[in-house]
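Lab notebook, design round three. We kept the backbone fixed and only want residue identities now. Task for the bench partner: fill in a sequence for the structure below.
Input structure tokens:
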């Protein structure tokens, strides 16, 4: 009889399409893990495309620093740049955030299933699929 396959973090136990690759997700979470980059994403999410000058207006962050942060966000697939004439505009790309959200939903469902099994075990007092020990026989837990 074949052994049941262990569910991975990038496969949905409900049979939905697999989620993003772990290395891509790591880039997304790394990029969003910096407060400055997170603020940039929030501004870009508000809509439209913005130039570096617009993104640095009324802030104490240099254009060079914002450029470096935008490059990290672009490598993670969170922003895109558009060249219009001599100006480069940056805009949010929701694709990778959606992939990360779907992955977190899968992990959440797996977590809920694991907690349900733990609850059932705690309430029953024995692991699922294990028969209780007969009186006079030692239990399998030693």
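Proposed sequence:
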């Amino acid at each position: 009889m074949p052994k049941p396959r262990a569910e991975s973090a990038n496969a949905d136990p409900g049979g939905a399409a697999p989620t993003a690759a772990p290395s891509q997700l790591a880039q997304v979470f790394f990029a969003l893990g910096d407060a400055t980059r997170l603020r940039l994403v929030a501004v870009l999410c508000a809509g439209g495309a913005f130039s570096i000058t617009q993104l640095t207006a009324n802030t104490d962050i240099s254009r060079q620093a914002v450029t470096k942060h935008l490059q990290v966000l672009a490598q993670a697939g969170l922003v895109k740049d558009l060249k219009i004439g001599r100006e480069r505009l940056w805009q949010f790309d929701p694709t990778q955030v959606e992939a990360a959200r779907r992955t977190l939903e899968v992990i959440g469902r797996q977590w809920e299933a694991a907690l349900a099994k733990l609850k059932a075990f705690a309430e029953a007092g024995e692991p699922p699929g294990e028969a209780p020990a007969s009186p006079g026989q030692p239990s399998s837990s030693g």
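Keep this in mind before ordering anything: Helices lie at 22-32, 35-45, 52-56, 63-75, 95-124.
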